[in-house]
Design brief:
The protein has ten helices and eight strands. It has 305 residues and is of the alpha/beta class. It has a single domain, classed as 3-Layer(aba) Sandwich (Rossmann fold). Helix 3 crosses helix 10. The longest helix is centred in the middle third of the chain and has 15 residues. The chain is globular and about 50 Å long. This is Alpha/beta hydrolase fold domain-containing protein. InterPro entries: AB_hydrolase_3 (IPR013094), AB_hydrolase_fold (IPR029058), GDXG_lipolytic_enzyme (IPR050300). It comes from Amnibacterium soli.
């Protein structure tokens, strides 16, 4: 189906913006494109700050505890997206998603402020931060009131790559992996012809063209060859991988990565479920859930099952 009408009405605001334009160079119209679609009311969730002692230094985390959480509750370690180079604990994809998933799980979500890729920060540093945060979550199970056996790991976009890569480490044994519009392969798999035709109608700034994906992974890895297969989810041996739930945005160049990963998991006998958020663009969980855009709440419900 086409882009949701409310989102489509804002597309003219970002026409002409080149792909990869830094946030600080975006015109004011881009801010209007990302404005809320309605009034958002946060669920009853307590939020606390904490710091994890990681191998590369302190890692800030934010702990979300649902009012309904009981001893032995479910938990989730969550990593936001941002192309490996941007994003923080305050962005909706981190803060709002953590609020919503904590409430839906009736448990605890720990959001990770991992180090962002730069000229001096490359793989495996961000994954190491996520793995250290996982270790802290499990070690803090009694204090947090969670059942460590029921702890899951997840993330969105680049954060989904980091979460999925962390789940490949032997010291990380989550009950499940919860991935939102993940970018798990380089090069990025193609989408089907019908989706490709829909994508061609979008403003270029919303597209993940091959050169954009190359730049993203080049910055994260520090190279575009000799990829670390053991920690690249799309290249790794997925035997024994945890049960996985994947939500992809319908109108997203990266949709093919989530769909291929689901096929790869299934080929190894890993339980996997995938859903498509109809009419949604990449990063749709950066929009707080409101009645006017029900696919956002449906995506959150799917991840929290």
């Amino acid at each position: 189906m086409p882009v949701h009408p409310l989102i489509a009405a804002r597309l003219p605001l970002i026409e002409g913006i080149a792909p990869g334009t830094p946030a600080e160079l975006m015109p004011e119209s881009a801010l209007a494109f990302g404005a809320p679609y309605g009034e958002y009311t946060a669920p009853d969730v307590r939020v606390e700050e904490a710091v994890v002692d990681g191998p590369h230094g302190p890692v800030p985390v934010r702990v979300y505890r649902a009012a309904e959480a009981q001893p032995g509750a479910r938990s989730l370690l969550w990593a936001h997206g941002g192309g490996f180079t941007s994003g923080d604990l305050d962005m909706p994809e981190a803060h709002v998603v953590s609020l919503e998933l904590a409430a839906r799980l009736r448990g605890v979500v720990v959001s990770v402020g991992y180090r962002l890729a730069s000229e001096s920060v490359h793989h495996p540093i961000p994954v190491d931060d996520v793995v250290a945060s996982w270790g802290w979550l499990i070690a803090s199970a009694e204090t947090l009131g969670i059942d460590p056996v029921r702890a899951s790991i997840g993330g969105a976009s680049a954060g989904a790559f980091l979460a999925a890569a962390a789940a490949l480490r032997p010291e990380v044994e989550p009950a499940s992996a919860l991935l939102a519009y993940p970018a798990l392969h380089f090069p990025n798999p193609a989408v089907d012809d019908a989706t490709a035709a829909e994508l061609r109608a979008l403003p270029p700034v919303l597209r993940f063209f091959p050169q954009v994906v190359t730049a993203i992974f080049g910055t994260y890895l520090g190279r575009i060859t000799d990829l670390p297969a053991a920690e690249s989810p799309g290249l790794a041996d997925l035997t024994g991988y945890p049960p996985t739930r994947i939500v992809v945005s319908e109108l997203d160049d990266l949709r093919g990565s989530g769909e291929l990963f689901a096929q790869q998991l299934a080929s190894r006998g890993v339980p996997v479920e995938l859903t498509v958020a109809e009419g949604m663009l990449h990063g749709h969980l950066n929009i707080p859930p409101v009645d006017a855009l029900p696919e956002i709440a449906r995506s959150l419900d799917f991840l929290a099952l």
